[in-house]
Structure formats: C-alpha cells, structure tokens
Specification:
The protein is an alpha+beta fold and about 70 residues long. The chain is about 20% helix and about 45% strand. The strands form two sheets. Strands 1-2 form a two-stranded antiparallel ribbon.
Length: about 70
C-alpha cells in the first residue's frame, strides 16, 4: 500500500496505519488511519483496491488507488 501512496516507510508511518480486512464475501478491503490516511487525503485518494493471492510457497498482491 505504501507504493500506491508513493511514500515508502518514512514520515511517521506506522505498521498500524494500514489494515486489510476481509469482507464476508472474501474480498479484501483496505483501511487507512493516522499518517497514511492524511497522505491519502492530500492526494485525493478515497479508495484503494487490493488483490491478494497465494499458494503454499508463494504470495502476490497488487494495489490500485482511486481518487476524486
């Protein structure tokens, strides 16, 4: 998610500023708080779409930001 915000680990960002929550359907949803929320607001990002997939030995994820 930090790549989609364009920040990396800097500027007071904490691990707890980003949360991935599974909807009842299984679809992942991204929640932002703290510094990550502030950065997203500054960039007019109101939604982050994430896709996550894995097998026993590998995992992959991608994120796309959407704004106003």
């Amino acid at each position: 998610m930090l790549k989609v915000l364009g920040t990396g680990w800097r500027g007071g960002i904490n691990w707890t500023d980003i949360e991935v929550i599974n909807e009842p359907s299984g679809q992942p949803r991204v929640g932002l708080v703290g510094q990550c929320r502030r950065i997203a607001d500054e960039q007019n990002i109101d939604k982050i779409f994430v896709s996550i997939s894995h097998i026993e030995t590998h995992a992959i994820a991608s994120a796309v930001a959407s704004g106003q």
